[in-house]
Amino acid sequence: MKTVTGNGNEWIREEFHQIDFGDKRLKERFFETAGLLSSKASGSIYPSCHGSWSQAKGAYRFFSNERVSESALFRTHCVQTQKRLEGHSLVFSLQDTSELNFDSHKKTEGLGSISKAYHKHKMGLMLHASLMVTQEGLPLGLSSLKCWSRVSREEPPQEKQRRLYQSTMKEKESIKWIETLYETAALIPKDTCLITLGDREVDIFELFRVASSLKTFFIIRNRKDRKFIDEKGKKTTVQTALSKTPILKTIALTLPKNQQRVARTAYVDIRSISGWLPIRNNLVYGPTNKDASRHIHEKVHVSAISVKEQPPPEGVAPVEWVLLTNLTATDAFEAEEKVNWYRLRWKIEEFFKTLKSGCCVEQCRLNTATKLTKMITLKSIIAFKLMHMTKMAALCPEATCTDVLSKIEWQTLYCRIQTTSRLPEHPPQCFRQ
Questions:
Q1: Residue 22 CA neighbour count, 13 Å, CB half
Q2: What is the torsional sign of CA 156, 221, 94, 213?
Q3: Cis amide linkage into residue 47, ω under 30° from 0
Q4: Do β-strands 112-113 and 123-133 pair in parallel, antiparallel, or remain unpaired?
Q5: 3-class secondary structure, 391
Q6: Where are the beta strands (DSSP E) in 235-282?
Q7: Percentage of the chain modeled with pLDDT above 70
Q8: Which ranges carry the Transposase IS4-like domain (predicted)?
Q9: β-strand pairing of 193-198 with 90-101
Q10: Up-side HSE of residue 211: CA atoms within 13 Å toward CB?
Q11: 259 φ, ψ (degrees, to nearest 5)
Q12: 145 pairs with which residues across the strands?
């Protein structure tokens, strides 16, 4: 297993040693710029350059250089991600999308709408990411990163729904889930099992079909009550079939804090049933192909797992999940295992929080979306590095801090924790100290 090693600028040089801009001076400029942004992840360009205008000017020129592309930056990171995946029998791809708010950057060109309401237009960029983690929750890298500006449309919800119904899969924004699955599967070593985890937005027919065709697995939260064919061939719905299934087990589910709830423990009942999801041809829509689009072409075998809290605390929304997976979940042990695996999905929310709050990506001030995308790509990789370092400290508390921190970094951290201004000469023996 390969982990992120090196401290200070060393990890930058190790992570990106294969990058090629066609100019050695530009490559050195990248190492210098990335090192500065990494050493002060919460700062934008000028603060990260410690007040040096010459260094800041060099960084601005780097992101303005046409020979620098976000694809080159990310492609090099993917090579290292693939190496870190080696030796793991099981890895998880956590997919999610987030909005990056640059509405206060009035002069930035190329931004798009990030508002969900059709009559409002907050400006920014959309970011879709796939974070690879182990069963223990250790981040191994990003397998896909897509950043784009969404076109502002003046249409009410009914017209939007009609437009999407008449669009092919490739014309929809939802294609991001499928493309990311293909890109991630291409990085997976031969003897490694890939499981995609996703929230209700990922509950789309095409992903189920593609995942099965690639011989990969998924655990997706169900968005709506789908048609279902049980093992006996009876046609019903997922919710109806689960309601007639006995409780397998009651478990304690630890829920982290988020914008909608406080951290708490929920006691949930688990049910499970196996059967088939009939998949219609959703590649062609529209009135002229209405009959064809409704025709059932194939079906995917799934296990549906119900996770339901009874009763919830007073005034608190209950936990009610239905998970769909093409993994087996025929007994209490297997069903609980899949529920615990699905909880790893919260790591992608932690990634976006690290990117926005820790790396302050929304404070970056570059005058075009193209330049911003390059910065976002680099900041995303730095956010992964911070998550990897944090989890390594939890998993390996006896490891030395010099494995991941430079001398000035561990000295600063030591002074902050110990509330002293005297710099230590020798590093603590382990992370725990």
A1: 6
A2: negative
A3: no
A4: antiparallel
A5: helix
A6: 235-237, 249-255, 264-280
A7: 84
A8: 196-382
A9: parallel
A10: 30
A11: -70, -25
A12: 129
Q: Which residue has the tokens 């006896």?
A: 398
Contact 247, 176 (CB under 8 A): no
Do the Cβ atoms of 294 and 264 come closer than 8 Å?
Answer: no
Taking the C-alpha atoms of residue 391 and residue 419, their distance in angstroms, rounded to an integer, is 24
Measured CA to CA, the distance from residue 238 to residue 324 in angstroms comes to: 9
CA distance 311 to 320: 11
Classify residue 347 by burial, with Cβ atoms within 10 Å: 0-12, 13-18, 19+: buried
Tell the burial category of 376 from Cβ atoms under 10 Å away from its Cβ (0-12, 13-18, 19+): buried
Q: Exposure of 116 by Cβ count < 10 A (0-12 exposed, 13-18 middle, 19+ buried)?
A: exposed
**pLDDT confidence bin for 406, thresholds 50/70/90:** low
Residues in the chain: 433
All structural domains of the chain = 71-353 (3.90.350.10), 400-433 (no CATH)
pLDDT in tens, 293-332: 444 557 899 999 999 998 888 888 899 999 999 999 999 9
- What's the chain's Rg over C-alpha atoms? 24
Q: How far is CA 240 from CA 226, 326, 327, 328, in A?
A: 10, 19, 21, 20
| pLDDT band with cut points at 50, 70 and 90 for residue 34 | very high
Exposure string for 219-254, b = 16+ CB within 10 A, e = fewer = bbbbeeebebbbeeeeebebeebbeeeeebeebebe
Q: How many CA atoms lie within 13 A of 424 on its CB side?
A: 18
Q: Does an H or E element contain 375, and which? A: helix 369-395
For residue 10, the Cα-to-chain-centroid distance in whole angstroms is 26
Cβ atoms 265, 253 nearer than 8 A? yes
Question: Are β-strands 123-133 and 227-230 bridged in parallel, bridged antiparallel, or unpaired?
Answer: unpaired
What is the Cα–Cα distance from 358 to 62, expressed in whole angstroms? 23
What is the rounded distance in angstroms from the CA atom of residue 184 to the CA atom of residue 182?
5
| The pair of three-digit structure tokens given for residue 34, joined into one six-digit string | 């990335």
Place of tokens 């430079």: 406
297-97-373 Cα angle (round to 5): 120
Nearest to 371 by CA among 108, 58, 102, 142: 108
Rounded Cα gap, residues 152 and 112, in angstroms:
7
Q: Which single residue is written with the structure tokens 């059709």?
A: 118
**What is the mean predicted confidence (pLDDT) over 219-239?**
94
Residues 6+ apart with CB under 8 A from 89: 191, 192, 193
3-state SS, residue 257 = coil
